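Annotated sample (chain length 244).
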Amino acid sequence: MTTLDGETVIVTGASAGLGESMAKRFAREGANVVLTARSKDELDRVAAEADGETLVATADVTEESEVSAVVEAAVEEYGEVTGLVNNAGIGLLSMYGGGMPLHEVETEDFRKIVDVNITGVFLFSKYVVPELVDAGRGNIINISSGFGRRGAPNFGPYVGTKWALEGILRTQSMELEEHGVNVNGLDPGGRVDTGFWDQLPDEEREDILDADVMDDAAVALLAQGPDGITGESLAADDWEQKLL
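Output written by the structure step:
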C-alpha cells in the first residue's frame, strides 16, 4: 500500500478545494505537509482538520521573498523537502465568474493570471529544486488542466498559462532526471466541485467531480522513487491506471 512516510511536501493553494483535499490526504498518508496560501485563517482551519503532521506557512506565490521563506521554514522544521505540488491558480472564471474574448481582457488581469499560474510555479521551483537535488530524490507535481491540451473560447489567459505549464514541466523533467527528481502534470479530468465552478447552473453540475478526484494519483506520484515516471501530464484516472 502506498504511503508517504518520510516525505515532506509543500502544497500551494492548500486553503481550499483541490489543494486542501490533497494536503489532507498527504498528511493521512504520513507526509509532513507544508500548507501554503495567502489566508492564514483558512490554512489554520485545514491544519486543524488534518489527520497528520502539518506546518502553516502563508505566502503569496508571486512574491519571491515569501516563497523563499516558505521553503526555508519547511527545511528548518523537517530537515528537507522531497515534494512540491504547484496547485495555486486563478483564471477569469475564479476572478469574475465568467470569461471574455482575449482581446477584451484587461492587461492588469492578464498579467495577474500569468503571475500566479506561471511565475508562482517558477518561484517555488527555483527554491524547492535545490533541496530536492540535495536530497537526491523528489517529485514535483504541477496541477494542469484539460485546457493545457486544447483551446477554450473566452478563457484565453488561463488556457495560455496551462499550455505554458505543460512546456515548463516537460523541460524541467529533462533538466532534473539525472538528479533523481521527477516532474509531472496532473489534472482532474473535468470540472470539479470547488469554488472555481460555483457559478455553474444546476443542470451543468450533474457530472461535476468531487474535490478529492486527484488524491489517489497525487499520492502515487509523490511516492515515486528516483527512477519514476517523469515528463508526463495526464488526468487523474489515467495516472491511476498507470501507477496503481
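Annotation: The longest helix spans residues 107-135.
Annotation: The chain has one domain: 8-243.
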